[in-house]
């Protein structure tokens, strides 16, 4: 069989650190092209990984079977919609969009085109985290949970490579790390039927959910936590006792490799992955409801 050709949209830090090297090294795909809003950056990234820089997204779509996106969500959604309409399978970043209408349009375009989709929620593709989430979902019986997803991207003295991210600064922790928290809570406790949110210091948000079936959860989200207080913790409580999300044992590259595997399997079999566009769209809807509660 011909190796599927995949293109990369985006040339920023995340694309340089994860997407491009993971795609170039993956034996199941051929990284054939790169497009970015800065042509010189696309040329440099493509050259570093044996691919070709493209001057337009549509030119890239025409030469690819799938595309991976490493773009701000407001840019990702319309370009991914065009990619789906061109018949390309989609490997998306989170959140898939900032507006539920854009997420719906993208989801519907992918459905009409019969293309597979996977959204790269990092925890869902980490070996230990993914096994833990699946195991706790199978156990069931959880009545409450709390997640702390605390980063220091915009804390005083931060040297984070994401500190220059305009969309993160504008939308804050709710939209940047909120998807990660939801990617763990929703598959274990069920969809959220009621959403509330309150502001804390700086961009910190306290998110509270009532899930289908009656379970309740909360999450504290921040990109402005003091470095000494930053970190991730998720605790479930239920009939089985107390369960704590294991610490990440590997970095984002192996997780992204598994996300590519998931996309290839979904494209080959036609069976949707649990982290497909339908799930990504639902996450956007929940975050938008939380944002409305804040306003």
Automatic annotation (TrEMBL):
InterPro entries per record: Gfo/Idh/MocA-like_OxRdtase_N (IPR000683), Gfo/Idh/MocA_oxidrdct_glycsds (IPR050463), NAD(P)-bd_dom_sf (IPR036291)
A Pfam entry, by short name: GFO_IDH_MocA
Keyword Oxidoreductase: yes
Annotated keywords: Oxidoreductase
All residue ranges annotated as the Gfo/Idh/MocA-like oxidoreductase N-terminal domain in the record: 5-118
PANTHER family tied to this protein: BCDNA.GH03377
Protein name: Gfo/Idh/MocA family protein
Organism of origin: Streptomyces ramulosus
């Amino acid at each position: 069989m011909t190796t599927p050709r995949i293109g990369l949209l985006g040339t920023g830090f995340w694309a340089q650190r994860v997407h491009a090297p993971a795609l170039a090294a993956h034996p199941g795909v051929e990284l054939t092209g790169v497009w970015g809003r800065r042509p010189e950056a696309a040329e440099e990234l493509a050259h570093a990984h044996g691919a070709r820089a493209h001057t337009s997204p549509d030119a890239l779509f025409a030469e690819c079977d799938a595309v991976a996106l490493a773009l701000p969500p407001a840019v990702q959604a319309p370009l991914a919609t065009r990619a789906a309409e061109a018949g390309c399978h989609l490997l998306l970043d989170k959140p898939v969009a900032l507006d539920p209408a854009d997420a719906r349009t993208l989801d519907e375009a992918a459905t009409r085109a019969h293309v597979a989709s996977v959204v790269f929620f990092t925890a869902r593709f980490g070996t230990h985290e993914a096994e833990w989430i699946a195991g706790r979902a199978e156990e069931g019986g959880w009545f409450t949970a709390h997640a702390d997803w605390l980063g220091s991207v915009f804390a005083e003295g931060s040297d984070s490579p994401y500190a220059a991210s305009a969309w993160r600064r504008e939308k804050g922790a709710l939209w940047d790390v909120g998807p990660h928290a939801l990617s763990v809570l929703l598959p274990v406790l069920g969809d959220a039927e009621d959403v509330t949110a309150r502001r804390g210091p700086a961009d910190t948000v306290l998110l509270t959910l009532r899930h289908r079936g009656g379970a309740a959860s909360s999450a504290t989200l921040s990109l402005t936590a003091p470095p000494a207080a930053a970190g991730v913790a998720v605790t479930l409580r239920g009939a089985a006792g107390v369960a704590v999300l294991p610490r990440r044992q590997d970095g984002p590259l192996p997780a992204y490799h598994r996300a590519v595997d998931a996309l290839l399997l979904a494209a080959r079999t036609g069976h949707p992955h649990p982290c497909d566009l339908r799930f990504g769209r639902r996450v956007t809807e929940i975050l938008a409801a939380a944002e409305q509660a804040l306003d």
